[in-house]
Amino acid sequence: MQPVVVLDCFTVEPSGLGVPPYLSTYVRNAWSALRRARPEAEARYLTIDDVRWCLAGGNPTVEPPQSDPLTYSTTVNRDNAIQLLRDAEIVVVVAGDAVAEAEQLYAAGVRNFRLGQQTCFFSYRNRDEGAIRALLSGVRERCPDLEVLHIDNADPLAVASPVGRRIAKLVADYCTEVNCAPMGIESFGPVVIERNTLTCTPEILMRAVEHVNEVGAARGGGSLPMLLDTGTLDELETYVDFLVAVMPAQAFHRLAFHRPGPGSRTVQ
Fold first, then answer.
1. Which positions of the chain have pLDDT values less than 50?
2. Which of 73, 165, 192, 238 could form an S-S bond across to 47 if both were Cys, CB 3.0 to 4.6 Å?
């Protein structure tokens, strides 16, 4: 009897992580549906990494730092992943089709959209500029009278790259005004960055902010910017006030007596 296969292409959502070592609710639902629909069949589970690595001779398709050499998915079906797909009676692919989903929601009366539930919009399809253009233009074509089209989070590393600026321009061109590309950095400390092998540095973050500001400054129909970065000076001062409030007395003492170097700036 032919097997039935769930092919997990991974979903990343704040409401339900779907990347290793987690298993998304969609995979569990697909598995249950297959078992109910074909109780007599042999149900098997594959990940897209099984298929990629099988095709690549067991090597990662993307080298560090874009891939994490310490975290990857593996299943007992890896060795015969391709053969399983060829022999399967049914292959359920767990992945999203945002354009089709937006079209269905639009037909139901929805006019405000956010392409969310992801860690970095700019990394869609491995920073594929053409795929991102097709995604954004596809939503605009199928939802011509939408009122809001915004994106979700952004990884500074992706935004700071050469293609990141071009992707930011696509976001500004196709999305509606007052869009935001929220970005963050784990630490500004060089020692922390080095010891934890962090990929984002203050220089990279600043370049990412510059890319967003350069292409997002144009004004929309409501005279507001098309694309914003993470925050404003007023918000920065609020963050500083909060840090000072929670900072231990000893640390505050060291901050108060810190002598700024040439060219450094302080927040009063």
1. 64-72, 253-268
2. 73
* Backbone angles phi and psi of 201, in degrees to 5: -110, 165
Distance CA 141, CA 151 (A): 17
Q: Whole-model pTM? A: 0.60
Tokens matching residue 229: 């970065």
What Cα–Cα distance (Å) separates residue 83 from each residue in 57, 88, 135, 158, 189?
15, 8, 31, 35, 49
State both tokens at 113. 């959209």
Q: How many CB atoms lie within 10 A of CB 122?
A: 28
Structure tokens at 218: 């144009």
Q: Classify residue 220 as left (phi > 0), alpha (psi -120 to 50) or beta.
A: beta
Rounded distance, CA 189 to CA 81, Å?
43
Q: In this structure, are residues 128 and 136 in contact, taking their beta carbons and an 8 Å threshold?
A: no
pLDDT tens by residue, 21-67: 677 778 888 888 888 888 888 888 888 777 777 766 655 555 544 44
